[in-house]
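User: quick one, sequence for these tokens?
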């Protein structure tokens, strides 16, 4: 949305017309959080939090459905029904607290890929995604300004009208002096944050979102800025990490040693920065020498450096098994390498394949036998079985760390496979379960 030639009220009306379900979801989110903020019922509190989580995941899915409906108007109701069904499934079946981030990334990646479903104009995917990124930044800034203003207004009311504010939040009053509830201000602030996060931000965001299909003007300031950002920030940092990794590769070749596990961080930083620059530079590859050079160097360089990462991860996984961090590092590296290989094999490949592939990876990591939870569970229980079978004084520390991982990431029944039933009080903490398991196994 170009607001230079658009009335703000018209932009807001267009946003409401194009994305009504997003705003409706935001209203549900506000109601859920305010209910949690004011209820003493544990049941209502849990229900409200779960609804709020579902709304967070609903935002990108509903944006994706709205964009798909604009690109393909006839089956619009199918896209919206599919999004609502997915949101219902998320709310009803999934443990959002443990796998929420992966689910949200999958939803956001789906929304990113949708504008690339059309091949004309060729730059449609880039224009919508960069426009959405601009909308995200501006909407966040606007929301922060509104949030700070409203919180200062609440503080002013508390200072100037303490009795009235306390009564508004159901606090008992005695005589002239207020017996103030310690949570009065925190509840008021919570309500303000709920309204800003679930209503003000979505309204600002949808108001600024670009059209689903239009021609690209890469000279528009909101777009040209990203070219400069790549030229002076992303690309120099990418070359910096390329130099660091080249020096490290030479070092391990000279010393004839395997790469250390810490190499994962610089390799993944290079991959994320490089891949971001690779797609942001799309409009300038043809006529800017620096953009053309980087877009040719990075897809060839990263797969080579990723060998260091794969060797380090293989070594750590063989010794200590899969953990969530190692699983995510491996999946992220495989995704970036796959994107690089697609670019090398077919330079004309539509860039929308990258977020579509990311969404697929996130769904695999979330659901089924290859999910992060399942792979790590099988790996860590296998590690614990081996350690207990070959137990010695040297392995006790490894057993303790593996046991701690299982207790913190899985339920009590997993630990009881190795310890038998644990005698614990009701509602025992993770620490209590871990201590009971250590006592049962005779660990220090």
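Assistant:
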């Amino acid at each position: 949305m170009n607001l230079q030639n658009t009335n703000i009220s018209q932009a807001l009306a267009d946003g409401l017309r194009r994305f009504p379900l997003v705003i409706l979801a935001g209203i549900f989110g506000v109601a859920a959080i305010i209910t949690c903020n004011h209820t003493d019922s544990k049941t209502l509190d849990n229900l409200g939090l779960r609804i709020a989580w579902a709304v967070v995941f609903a935002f990108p899915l509903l944006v994706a459905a709205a964009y798909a409906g604009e690109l393909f108007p006839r089956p619009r109701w199918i896209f919206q029904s599919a999004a609502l069904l997915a949101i219902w499934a998320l709310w009803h079946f999934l443990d959002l607290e443990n796998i929420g981030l992966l689910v949200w990334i999958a939803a956001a990646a789906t929304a990113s890929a949708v504008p690339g479903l059309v091949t004309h104009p060729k730059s449609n995917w880039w224009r919508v995604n960069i426009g959405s990124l601009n909308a995200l930044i501006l909407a966040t800034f606007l929301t922060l300004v509104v949030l700070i203003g409203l919180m200062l207004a609440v503080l002013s009311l508390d200072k100037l009208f303490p009795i009235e504010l306390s009564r508004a939040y159901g606090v008992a009053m005695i005589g002239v002096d207020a017996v103030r509830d310690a949570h009065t201000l925190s509840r008021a602030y919570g309500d303000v944050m709920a309204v800003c996060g679930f209503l003000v931000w979505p309204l600002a965001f949808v108001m600024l979102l670009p059209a689903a299909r239009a021609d690209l003007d890469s000279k528009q300031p909101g777009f040209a800025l990203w070219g400069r950002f790549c030229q002076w920030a992303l690309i120099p940092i990418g070359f910096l990490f390329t130099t660091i990794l080249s020096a490290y590769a030479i070092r391990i070749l000279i010393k004839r040693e395997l790469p250390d596990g810490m190499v994962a961080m610089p390799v993944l930083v290079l991959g994320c920065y490089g891949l971001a620059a690779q797609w942001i530079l799309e409009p300038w590859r043809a006529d800017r020498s620096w953009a053309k050079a980087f877009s040719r160097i990075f897809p060839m360089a990263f797969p080579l450096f990723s060998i260091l990462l794969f060797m380090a991860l293989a070594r750590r996984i063989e010794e200590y098994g899969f953990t969530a961090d190692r699983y995510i590092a491996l999946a992220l590296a495989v995704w970036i390498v796959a994107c690089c290989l697609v670019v090398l094999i077919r330079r004309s490949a539509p860039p929308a394949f990258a977020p579509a592939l990311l969404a697929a990876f996130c769904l695999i990591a979330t659901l089924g036998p290859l999910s992060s939870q399942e792979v790590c569970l099988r790996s860590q229980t296998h590690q614990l079985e081996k350690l207990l079978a070959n137990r010695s004084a040297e392995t006790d520390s490894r057993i303790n760390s593996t046991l701690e991982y299982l207790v913190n990431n899985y339920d009590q029944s997993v630990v009881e496979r190795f310890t038998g039933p644990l005698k614990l009080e009701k509602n025992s903490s993770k620490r209590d379960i871990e201590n009971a398991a250590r006592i049962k196994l005779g660990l220090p």
